[in-house]
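Hello everyone,

My group is preparing for a crystallization screen and wants a predicted model to guide construct design. The compound we'll soak is NAP. Before spending weeks at the bench, it would help to have a computed complex in hand. I've included the protein sequence and the ligand's SMILES below. Output in structure-token form would be ideal because that's what our pipeline reads.
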Amino acid sequence: MNARPKLRAAIVGGSGYGGGEVLRLLLDHPEVEVVQITSRQQAGNFVYSVHPNLRSRTKLQFTTPDQLQPCDVLFLCMPHGEASGQIERFASLGHRIIDLSADFRLRSPDVYRTWYEANHPSPAWLDRFVYGLPELRRSQLAGARLASGVGCNATAVNLALYPLARAGLIRSVVADLKVGSSEAGNAASISSHHPERSGSVRSFAPTGHRHQAEVGQELMEPYGQFELALSITSVELVRGVLCTAHVTPTQPLDDKSLWKLFREAYANEPFVRIVKDRSGIHRYPEPKILAGTNYCDVGFERDPHSNRIVVLAAIDNLMKGAAGSAVQCMNLMCGFEETLGLTFTGLHPI
Ligand SMILES: NC(=O)c1ccc[n+]([C@@H]2O[C@H](COP(=O)([O-])OP(=O)(O)OC[C@H]3O[C@@H](n4cnc5c(N)ncnc54)[C@H](OP(=O)(O)O)[C@@H]3O)[C@@H](O)[C@H]2O)c1
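Reply:
Good plan to model first. Here are the tokens for the complex, ready for your pipeline.
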């Protein structure tokens, strides 16, 4: 009997950090073959020259985006604003599309205009895309043709707050996020220059971060409004996001109720783990041990001296916050086992 043919996947923007992670994951995926990967600047070069971890794992060479051929699954991994301007062309080439950028995450053109300070170039496409966070959108992603990526910071906040938000228990929340340098992609800038970046603890978005819109869409539209503030700080990490969310609940909650809420939300989630131990050094979520994995670790603590609940969530921004969630979406869209290609456990020590 013939084996089922593998899906043919292509990656646009494959020389970037997100595209490189999509390729790494798909090279280990039993149902998918990557047939094309693009980079304008690296066209003609072997992918390992840019992604040295993939040396001898693939003979692929970069092509230019205009050489793109039709494929079963197209991953778009370009900077913000590039996919939305060419979506008609990409949709004619990819039977299914997963776009890692922010171009199709927000359903409302008005909300998009507010946060991105521009009119969306293809507003009719916005509500055709399913927001690509499987924990919140699993049933819509199953069989879908188009999925957006997720904001990495939004993902840490959404998964931290989901158990409380869906129970209508949040009055207000201040989410403080510490983030690594790979969030900014592989293009160098003065802020990523080693003498400027190394050792810094730099507030870069104390207010006004665009990912706030994704939390509004995913948690407030379905479950009710609450006051939300995000502050983002760059720290000395390459990969990783740690969200520390200070929640004022609508009513006092004891430990038992909190455990119940978090267990009910995440007991059956393959990639969300509750981390809350009484002893040891790994009592709470920590991004370092998640590097390269698709896990989001979530923990919580009640403040005995106030009405505050602190919820913690850690991810690898390039994985659960980008390529890992994208491949998880692909598995759902194509009817594969949801965890295929995503079972790497990370390294310890690292
Ligand atoms: N980094 C993260 O943690 C993260 C997390 C979640 C989501 N995302 C989103 O994922 C997307 C990719 O992020 P990244 O960090 O991988 O960026 P990156 O490292 O800067 O890579 C961008 C890639 O896009 C290609 N590219 C740029 N302009 C293009 C164009 N006009 N047409 C075709 N290809 C183009 C670049 O290669 P050439 O210029 O050589 O073509 C490069 O391969 C972004 O939209 C980002 O917001 C990133």
